[in-house]
Amino acid sequence: MASKENKKLTEDQDKDFGFPFVDVVPLEVHAVNENITEKIEETQKAPFVEEVEPTIEEEFKASNSSKSDQPQEIEEVITTTKPIEIKRQDRTIATKERKSSNKTPIFLSLTLLVLILLGAMAYFLYYLPEYGEPKEQLTEESSRSAIIEESVTPSAIEPVDDDAVASEEILKERTTEVAAAEVVENQAPALTLIQSREGNPRYFIIVGSVVNENFARREAEKYLNDGYDTWIVFPYGDIRNFRVAIGQFESLEAATPDWEAAKKVYGNEIWILKY
């Protein structure tokens, strides 16, 4: 064994030319390795200290101490707080907007009502003219009848008395000639009962007004005997009397001449009735 080791040594010495074995290392790498080893040794020797973060109070004290160390050349600035002005315009504008928003449905409803009323008025005025015409005709008829009946006296409406019958007989004797001229020969007078109105108005010469139908028929017989066609007009509206007429005409102008002639016979108490 010893001989083998000696052989290896001799062989190694022959390779290195008899010099001792030297480990070849670059200088830079060797220096870096030395620095690393030194740092490792220092870290191993130095005690381990935990890093503690400073608290907020310590930072505040440090800042105060740094400020106290500064020279007192910095002037103290006094800050004055101004009161905050509250703008009331925004509130007023908001309230106005609320009020206006609350009033808008009211205005809309009012405008709709006005439009509905105007439409109804236009409908009744322009599309239903027939409802307005009969009223005008009734007013004209009532005004004419009022003018015609102004000449009526209360005595004409009262029941027939004996004195009135006697006066009528005297007047009839005086007007026999006028009656004979107006009556057609060989034609018997007729009695007609008027119980309702026709489409066109008629004009009657009224010579008597009585309370019931029996009195009206008695009066009509007298005028029939005198040769007059006689009409009995039944009550209508607010009128409760039966009217006795001796003439029927289609217009007021046609009835006026006969009315003037009959007044000479039966007096001024007779009148023209529009029915």
UniProtKB/TrEMBL annotation:
Database matches in PROSITE patterns: SPOR
Start and end residues of each SPOR domain: 197-275
Q: Where are the transmembrane segments?
A: 106-128
Protein keywords: Membrane, Transmembrane, Transmembrane helix
The keyword Magnesium appears for this protein = no
InterPro entries recorded: SPOR-like_dom, SPOR-like_sf
Respond yes or no to whether keyword Glycoprotein is given for this record. no
Any one Gene Ontology molecular-function term assigned to this protein's record: peptidoglycan binding
Know the name of this protein? SPOR domain-containing protein
Q: Which organism is it from?
A: Belliella buryatensis
